[in-house]
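User: I'm putting together a small comparison set for a docking exercise, and I want a reference complex before I start. The sequence is below, and the ligand is FE2/S2 (inorganic) cluster. Could you produce the 3D structure with the ligand included, as structure tokens?
Assistant: Of course. I'll restate your input first, then give the structure tokens for the complex.
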Amino acid sequence: SKLDNLYRAVILDHSASPRHAGELTAGCVIDMNNPTCGDVIRLTIDFKDDIISDIAFGGHGCTISTASASMMTEIVLGKTKEEALALAEIFSEMVTGEENPKQEELGDAQFLAGVSKFPQRVKCSTLAWNALKKAIQTGGNAEVQERHDA
Ligand code: FES
Ligand code: FES
């Protein structure tokens, strides 16, 4: 359908031109591994008090995981830790097929959650969000550099 084509175009655009690609020189560093394929995301976040003041991601992943990371960084930049965790929760629920009254807050990422419901895609689309959750759970400690499995 036309709508499916639009979603696909948005996803391909994020994958081809990822927003906030790279690595910050300061901040919290989290490496998150997708054990089903071996792909890795490195998320760096700079927290100013409670706010995500800067964010970047690198590593290597498939189209879906790269697009998801790109969308996630756009959505959570400038948000508080609590707001970002709530958005991660909405995304996780949508990937499992649940509707959420607040899903519009996810912007383009709600399309991506929709297309990544297939079991083999869930770990791809949630990789970046899991890295985000881990970064917030560590408290945004600048000394922290950890490796995790999604
Ligand atoms: Fe940075 Fe959109 S590219 S907020
Ligand atoms: Fe590895 Fe999608 S196939 S993250």
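Strands lie at 28-33, 40-48, 51-60, 145-149. Residues 2-149 form a domain with the Sufe protein. Chain: A fold (CATH 3.90.1010.10).
User: Thanks, that's exactly what I needed.
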